[in-house]
Design brief:
6-stranded antiparallel sheet, about 45% helix, single chain, 11 helices, about 250 residues, 6 strands, alpha+beta, disordered C terminus
């Protein structure tokens, strides 16, 4: 009675609350927001998001993904858990590579920057060329290379980050792919083959990479398929067959 204007204002707000969908709560939104802010911000989502024409991130540094300063206080095991937990909810490929294994891969990549990979399909295989550019490994289908040459667009990029290699003994890896041509299963298969051919202790397996780069006339693409089948990757990752590998 003493303040009709205040009464009317309260009634209007009450009416607005009634119109809100069931389960909607501004207080709940506020609490969720505060919970998000209270969590450690390990990942810098949205930073470094300048993309190239093909949709891949340009100059994708580890700082653009991860709060490096914050994780420096963490152990290698803790960083591995943070990295895996974060990317497990995303539709992409990721890994934490031991420093000594990456040393082998990196040294060989300098000597042999490209290789031919075989991607299992329902019938047969589709071939992809992988080309190292710094610590990025770009993949495109062989048909793209044959028709477009050096201008062939990347369909998958593996980003390797050795920023924590010396201090923590690990190298972080994640990827971006063109979902019009590849699914995560395809990207995982190609990433697994990098380990197979570049990190192997078998001279004959890495010998295929050397032959492809330095004696291309002697290279036989069927040898890649044979190695893939022998390793089990070809059978495990063929569409329509189950695989228990992550």
């Amino acid at each position: 009675r003493s303040s009709p204007d205040v009464f009317e204002s309260r009634m209007e707000k009450r009416s607005e609350v009634k119109k809100q969908p069931v389960g909607h709560s501004k207080q709940g939104e506020f609490i969720r927001c505060m919970e998000e802010k209270a969590r450690p911000i390990f990942f810098a989502e949205g930073l470094g998001s300048k993309t190239t024409k093909g949709g891949f991130t340009k100059h994708k540094t580890l700082d653009s993904i991860l709060n490096v300063e914050m994780v420096k206080e963490k152990s290698a095991e803790e960083i591995t858990q943070i990295w895996n937990q974060y990317f497990s909810a995303k539709d992409t490929v990721y890994a934490v590579i031991p420093a000594d294994k990456f040393d082998v891969i990196w040294k060989r990549a300098q000597n042999c920057p490209s290789f031919l990979y075989a991607l299992p399909r329902k019938e047969g295989y589709e071939f992809f060329v992988g080309q190292w550019s710094g610590t990025e490994l770009h993949f495109t289908s062989l048909i793209n290379v044959q028709t477009q040459g050096e201008t062939a667009p990347s369909q998958l990029v593996l980003y390797h980050y050795p920023d924590l290699q010396k201090e923590k003994g690990i190298v972080l890896m994640t990827a971006e792919m063109d979902s019009k041509f590849l699914v995560v299963r395809d990207a995982q298969c190609l990433a697994s083959q990098v380990q197979l051919f570049y990190a192997t202790e078998r001279p004959g397996t890495y010998g295929l990479v050397e032959t492809f780069n330095h004696r291309s006339s002697e290279f036989k693409y069927m040898s890649v398929i044979a190695e893939l089948e022998q390793s089990g990757l070809g059978r495990e990752l063929r569409p329509g067959q189950a695989s228990d590998k992550s």
